[in-house]
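This part of the workshop introduces the protein records we will be handling. Getting from the letters to the C-alpha coordinates is the skill we practise here. An example says more than a description, so a record of this kind follows:
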Amino acid sequence: MRTVDDYARIRYAFHTEHKKIREIAREQHCSRRTVRQAVEEAQPPGYRLSQARPVPALDPWKTRIDALLAESATMPRKQGFTRLRQLQDGRLPGSQREKPR
Protein backbone atom coordinates (compact mmCIF):
# COMPACT_ATOMS: atom_id res chain seq x y z
CA MET A 1 0.00 0.00 0.00
CA ARG A 2 1.30 3.42 -0.93
CA THR A 3 1.71 6.06 1.74
CA VAL A 4 1.03 9.79 1.54
CA ASP A 5 4.79 10.35 1.17
CA ASP A 6 4.89 8.04 -1.85
CA TYR A 7 2.12 10.02 -3.51
CA ALA A 8 3.95 13.28 -2.71
CA ARG A 9 7.18 11.96 -4.26
CA ILE A 10 5.31 10.87 -7.39
CA ARG A 11 3.58 14.23 -7.78
CA TYR A 12 6.84 16.10 -7.14
CA ALA A 13 8.70 14.05 -9.75
CA PHE A 14 5.95 14.62 -12.32
CA HIS A 15 5.17 18.29 -11.78
CA THR A 16 8.48 19.73 -10.62
CA GLU A 17 11.14 17.49 -12.13
CA HIS A 18 9.06 16.96 -15.33
CA LYS A 19 9.72 13.22 -15.42
CA LYS A 20 7.65 10.87 -17.53
CA ILE A 21 5.12 8.49 -16.01
CA ARG A 22 7.08 5.43 -17.12
CA GLU A 23 10.28 6.77 -15.55
CA ILE A 24 8.54 7.55 -12.24
CA ALA A 25 6.96 4.08 -12.20
CA ARG A 26 10.35 2.47 -12.69
CA GLU A 27 11.99 4.55 -9.93
CA GLN A 28 9.15 4.14 -7.41
CA HIS A 29 8.62 0.43 -8.16
CA CYS A 30 4.92 0.80 -8.89
CA SER A 31 2.64 0.51 -11.89
CA ARG A 32 2.06 3.29 -14.40
CA ARG A 33 -1.61 3.21 -13.44
CA THR A 34 -0.67 4.03 -9.84
CA VAL A 35 1.47 6.93 -11.03
CA ARG A 36 -1.38 8.26 -13.18
CA GLN A 37 -3.79 8.06 -10.25
CA ALA A 38 -1.33 9.86 -7.97
CA VAL A 39 -0.84 12.63 -10.53
CA GLU A 40 -4.58 13.08 -11.17
CA GLU A 41 -5.76 13.04 -7.55
CA ALA A 42 -4.93 15.75 -5.02
CA GLN A 43 -4.97 13.22 -2.14
CA PRO A 44 -4.35 9.48 -2.02
CA PRO A 45 -7.51 7.36 -1.99
CA GLY A 46 -8.98 6.63 1.43
CA TYR A 47 -9.52 3.23 2.96
CA ARG A 48 -12.78 1.50 2.04
CA LEU A 49 -14.15 -1.83 3.14
CA SER A 50 -15.10 -4.06 0.23
CA GLN A 51 -17.76 -5.79 2.33
CA ALA A 52 -19.43 -4.96 5.61
CA ARG A 53 -17.99 -6.79 8.60
CA PRO A 54 -20.21 -9.56 9.95
CA VAL A 55 -21.86 -8.91 13.31
CA PRO A 56 -23.44 -12.25 14.29
CA ALA A 57 -24.16 -11.24 17.89
CA LEU A 58 -26.07 -8.16 16.76
CA ASP A 59 -28.00 -9.66 13.83
CA PRO A 60 -31.08 -10.81 15.82
CA TRP A 61 -31.43 -7.32 17.33
CA LYS A 62 -30.68 -5.25 14.24
CA THR A 63 -34.30 -4.69 13.20
CA ARG A 64 -35.26 -3.65 16.74
CA ILE A 65 -32.33 -1.24 16.99
CA ASP A 66 -33.18 0.31 13.63
CA ALA A 67 -36.80 0.74 14.71
CA LEU A 68 -35.73 2.41 17.98
CA LEU A 69 -33.37 4.76 16.17
CA ALA A 70 -36.03 5.66 13.62
CA GLU A 71 -38.44 6.33 16.50
CA SER A 72 -35.78 8.43 18.23
CA ALA A 73 -35.19 10.50 15.09
CA THR A 74 -38.79 11.71 15.13
CA MET A 75 -38.68 12.71 18.82
CA PRO A 76 -37.58 16.14 20.04
CA ARG A 77 -33.83 16.41 20.58
CA LYS A 78 -33.77 16.02 24.37
CA GLN A 79 -36.26 13.16 24.37
CA GLY A 80 -34.48 10.96 21.84
CA PHE A 81 -32.85 7.72 22.89
CA THR A 82 -29.11 7.51 23.19
CA ARG A 83 -27.38 4.15 23.18
CA LEU A 84 -26.65 4.47 26.89
CA ARG A 85 -30.28 5.23 27.63
CA GLN A 86 -31.40 2.26 25.53
CA LEU A 87 -29.05 -0.03 27.44
CA GLN A 88 -30.32 1.30 30.77
CA ASP A 89 -33.93 0.80 29.74
CA GLY A 90 -33.25 -2.78 28.71
CA ARG A 91 -34.11 -2.17 25.09
CA LEU A 92 -30.80 -3.47 23.73
CA PRO A 93 -28.94 -6.76 24.18
CA GLY A 94 -26.49 -6.75 27.06
CA SER A 95 -28.61 -4.55 29.26
CA GLN A 96 -28.85 -5.34 32.97
CA ARG A 97 -32.54 -4.63 33.49
CA GLU A 98 -35.47 -6.55 32.23
CA LYS A 99 -37.45 -4.98 29.43
CA PRO A 100 -40.11 -2.53 30.66
CA ARG A 101 -43.71 -3.69 30.44
User: Anything to note?
Assistant: The radius of gyration is 25 Å. Residues 67 and 73 are 10 Å apart (CA to CA). The mean pLDDT is 80. Residues 54-101 form one domain.
